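TASK: fixed-backbone design
INPUT:
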């Protein structure tokens, strides 16, 4: 296969990298290098920001209906190119085509949300706040803002970041994952075709050097990050130390609590889909099952074993596959390393997918599903995010112990409870220290008009992604107090003005 040379996308044009540094981009299903992506130098990043700053002044002053119309056209173009985008996404990431379409769709929905920007950006007005005084608050764009995104949702997360930001009138620098950068470049082309002025959405490919360039550039006003917790924490500290607004979302360890009264077949279906879909490479994947009581645990394990054993691993383009390869060989080795650690720690490996080989694709990055029982809270495989097709069962004696496990874990992204009891569900939703909660729903990713974000070490910053929070994050509020001179008594006032 010929190796494609990818570019940056700056000022509405594909720009070749000039740093001389590149990263290989693989097709996980075959293990081949399909492309190389340039890694931007600080100078290339700075030039992109300068270009964006110039373009933003006009875009920010454009009326919001016109900005919304560009988003609406963009939505139509994504739908037109859905198959092409999904094919590229699944080849570079490894997820199945159906899952790739879901990735694009969940991003597209945030673009749809952002078409409503005239309404979303409306301010507030108080008539007669004082004698002859009116007061109003308005939202203005920040200027140039940036998004740094992970490999596991190469369409959805860039779209979550850039659509609200652009709709609010900002220019955007996107630094996508260097592991699957093609779809972000295709999305930038579609935005241009939709009528977005050049320079408003720029894709700067790169690694830490480009990220540090973003964090230190005085013209970047806000940074949105999604990725692993150590990098989220680093980006948050450095961005805020440099006076920027930041929202940084990190890793996860999502539990599913299964109560004795749960519909066990439903719970098992949910665990299989949410635990192993996308090879477990989702920040909202369920990686820990917490059955309550021995009877529940035994029944669960009995039903889970044959289901995990019969999971179908396939190539990314096999429509019958449950999940495809992992993203890189390193990822496979890391996940297998965790399985090894779990055995050493004394967890009981009931299904071992480490030996799986994909016939005809022996160089691809595959592994089968793994299932552990008797995992305990002190084990590394419980404490750390594995990010692979590995489900751990942690047995809890009662509801309080299950809830405590959830609340004591350092991550707080998503959680689910399976029960038929309304009181238990309500108590759980109220008491769990987790950002997104599913009641008989395994992957409770909020829709575009609500907000998405985790608690504890899964999220740094005050505002969440998409929904109303995204409009607050990408705008600053100005409050104007106005009085016209007619009818106003003369004279200086030396005390703090009050409205009486
Ligand atoms: P990652 O942290 O390795 O990379 C994320 C981004 O940071 C990439 O753009 C990468 O180029 C950049 N980066 C990597 N190392 C860096 C460094 N040393 N300095 C500066 N920048 C650096 O994450 P990943 O492997 O691409 O994605 C998987 C992780 O993302 C998982 O932990 C997953 O849970 C998390 N995730 C979280 C959410 C959420 O909303 N909480 C959503 C999706 C993924």
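OUTPUT:
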């Amino acid at each position: 296969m010929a190796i494609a040379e990818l570019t940056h996308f700056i000022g509405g044009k594909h720009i070749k990298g000039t740093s001389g540094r590149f990263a290989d981009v693989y097709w996980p299903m075959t293990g081949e290098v399909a492309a190389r992506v340039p890694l931007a130098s600080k100078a290339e990043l700075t030039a992109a920001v300068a270009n964006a700053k110039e373009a933003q002044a006009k875009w920010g002053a454009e009326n919001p209906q016109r900005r919304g119309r560009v988003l609406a056209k963009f939505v139509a173009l994504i739908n037109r190119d859905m198959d092409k985008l999904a094919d590229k996404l699944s080849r570079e990431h490894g997820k199945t085509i159906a899952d790739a379409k879901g990735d694009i769709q969940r991003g597209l929905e945030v673009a749809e949300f952002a078409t409503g920007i005239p309404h979303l950006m409306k301010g507030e007005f108080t008539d007669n706040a004082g004698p002859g005084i009116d007061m109003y608050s308005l939202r203005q764009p920040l200027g140039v803002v940036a998004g740094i995104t992970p490999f596991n949702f190469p369409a959805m997360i860039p779209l979550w970041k850039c659509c609200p930001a652009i709709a609010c009138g900002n220019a955007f620098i996107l630094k996508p994952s260097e592991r699957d950068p093609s779809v972000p470049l295709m999305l930038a082309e579609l935005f241009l075709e939709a009528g977005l002025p050049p320079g408003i959405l720029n894709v700067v490919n790169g690694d830490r050097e480009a990220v540090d360039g973003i964090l230190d550039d005085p013209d970047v006003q806000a940074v949105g990050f999604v990725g692993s917790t150590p990098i989220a924490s680093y980006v948050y500290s450095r961005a805020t130390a440099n006076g920027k607004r930041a929202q940084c979302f990190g890793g996860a360890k999502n539990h599913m609590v299964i109560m004795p009264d749960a519909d066990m077949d439903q719970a098992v279906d949910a665990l299989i889909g949410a635990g192993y879909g996308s090879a477990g490479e989702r920040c909202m994947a369920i990686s820990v099952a917490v059955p309550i009581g021995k009877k529940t645990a035994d029944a669960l394990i009995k039903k889970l074993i044959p289901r995990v054993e019969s999971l179908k691993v396939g190539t990314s383009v096999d429509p019958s596959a449950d999940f495809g390869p992992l993203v890189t060989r390193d990822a496979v080795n890391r996940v297998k390393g965790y399985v090894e650690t779990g055995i050493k720690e004394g967890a009981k490996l009931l299904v071992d997918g480490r030996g799986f080989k994909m016939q005809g694709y022996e160089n691809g990055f595959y592994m089968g599903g793994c299932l552990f029982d008797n995992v305990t809270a002190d084990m590394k495989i419980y404490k750390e995010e594995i990010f692979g097709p590995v489900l751990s069962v942690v047995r809890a004696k009662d509801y309080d112990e299950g809830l405590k496990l959830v609340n004591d874990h350092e991550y707080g992204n998503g959680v689910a409870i399976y029960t038929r009891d309304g009181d238990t569900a309500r108590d759980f939703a109220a008491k769990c220290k987790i950002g997104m909660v599913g009641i008989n729903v395994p992957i409770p990713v909020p829709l575009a008009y609500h907000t998405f974000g985790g608690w504890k070490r899964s999220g740094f910053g005050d505002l969440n992604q998409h929904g109303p929070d995204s409009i607050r994050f990408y705008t600053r509020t100005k409050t104007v107090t106005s009085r016209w001179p007619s009818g106003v008594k003369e004279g200086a006032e030396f005390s703090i003005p009050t409205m009486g």
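COMMENT: The mean pLDDT is 96.
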